[in-house]
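Reply to dn_fold:

You asked what the input looked like. This is it:
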Amino acid sequence: MAAVEFKDVNKVFGKDVKAVSDLSLGIKDGEFMVLVGPSGCGKTTALRIVAGLEEASGGDVFIGSVRVNDVPPKDRDIAMVFQNYALYPHMTVYDNIAFGLRLRELKGFFWEMAHLKDAREIRQSIDDRVREVAKMLGIDQLLLRRPRELSGGQRQRVALARAIVRKPKVFLMDEPLSNLDAKLRIQTRAELIRLHRTLGITTLYVTHDQVEAMTMGQRMAIMKDGLLQQVDEPERVYAEPANKFVAGFVGSPPMNFFDAKIMKMGDRFFVDASDFKLALPAGHAAQNLEGQAVTLGIRPEAIFDAALDGPMKGTAENTFDAKVDVVEALGHQYVAYLKIGAQTLVASLDANSGIRNQENARVAIDSNQIHIFDASTEQAIR
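and this is what came back:
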């Protein structure tokens, strides 16, 4: 296994299309790191630079202690899993998994099998490895089938097996679950987490799905327009987003944003969003911005039905009358679109809530969970 490090890496396409800008990021030995962001943010380009499929325009990439900028892809000891599986259609599942090992045998690269006496022992070792990995992924009954005879989930497992069987230093995964249906995606997500726990191989995983990033990554790195926005554990990214973009990208339903300003009434500070005012928690750094424009962020989970015995029950402050526009019933929760004056808020409410379509409601907002951002820089104010 080996750590991976980007040092001031840039990638420019053509004259002025900067796909990656000054990327400095370290992935620890054995860590599962997720690169996440919208389409075109540079995450796949960064992955391909590690693989050697793209050449960095500037900066350095290290795998372990070795600078790999000039190392051919075949000598980087990485394994890549693609979005489209990339299986050989004329080969059986067994042969697809064994192909990389056989190729290395032919080229004399079996350093870990150098003690084996003859070709028969090497082939038996390959067979043992293929069957071991196939059993680990639950495809040991499919070894004689061809890719066209497999479901999407089975094909993805074969692609994973082909990568795992080589025992590389680093796994690179480029949106490997995006072609699966929702149920299978959740199942395979759990399988990948278990595999990483078992194998402990350094993994760089690219996705545009923030749910995948939150549930799979030990740390996640959020990118936008080629720039790294924040790197941290998923829980901290959710609770303490570095800027407005990260706050809006992470979380489902996404965070509500409002133009606002900081005002003082008596000895209390409030954030004024025109149609409603929220009392700031005591000692909040935004108190130093009295009279200044800010952006107020409220997560849907911070809005409650004031009629329920929830955390805001009996709290008059930060409680407002709202008009219910639309309610989406999801079984375990309601997603409600509420109107307070001219402002629309999306709330994630308990399934026991009595809030219904086109009715009036009383809602409370937990000011300890609000986020304040600088109106010009969009950086978080803590």
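DSSP finds eight helices and 21 strands in the chain.
Hope that clears it up.
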